[in-house]
Write a structure and sequence with these properties.
alpha+beta, PH-domain like, four-stranded antiparallel beta sheet, 4 helices
Length: 179
């Protein structure tokens, strides 16, 4: 569905919030490489440390742990990147358009129950780069949930806009043509 068709049903276009899928893929690739390197180094060290009691078993455990965690997180981010490729949220006067991989779903404000599960800023180092900063869930009346995280540009502004429209009845004003 084209943005102009959605604009006719949801009113004037206000703004767009794109999700940075390439950043998500780069993070997945870095995690997968870390996992593979950790396992590639950890397996030989584990084999060589059989029967010893000095530092080799601890090193093997550390390398294998880093490898397995990196591999697991890398696969998770890769699946997330593939599932949400080309994701974008278009804000209109009377609702949202959620676009993913060429398909668009119209979500009128009345179909949104609330903003749920908002996470505050994660204070850990590199939280934003890892996608672990601000995030929230759009909870729909049909029990579906759409997760939005720091990979979506201006996620805080999107959350504030949805909250104002759904909870306070303050609908955004579009700059596009009204039906």
């Amino acid at each position: 569905m084209r943005r102009t068709e959605a604009a006719r049903e949801l009113g004037g276009f206000v703004r767009e919030h794109r999700t940075d899928g390439s950043r998500r893929l780069r993070l997945a690739a870095a995690l997968l490489v870390t996992g593979v390197i950790g396992l590639a180094l950890g397996v030989p060290v584990a084999i060589a440390s059989v029967g010893t009691t000095d530092g080799a078993p601890e090193l093997a455990g550390l390398l294998l742990g880093v490898g397995l965690i990196g591999l697991g997180l890398g696969i998770w981010r890769l699946m997330q990147a593939l599932r949400t490729r080309e994701q974008c949220f278009d804000v209109h006067e009377r609702g949202l358009t959620h676009r993913v991989a060429g398909t668009a779903t119209l979500i009128p404000w009345a179909d949104i129950e609330r903003i749920g599960s908002a996470s505050a800023e994660d204070g850990r180092p590199l939280a934003e780069a890892r996608g672990m900063g601000f995030g929230f869930t759009i909870e729909l009346s049909d029990a579906r949930r759409i997760r939005v995280d720091t990979f979506t540009e201006d996620a805080r502004e999107l959350a504030a806009t949805i909250h104002r429209a759904v909870s306070l009845g303050e609908f955004p004003q579009g700059r596009g043509r009204r039906p």
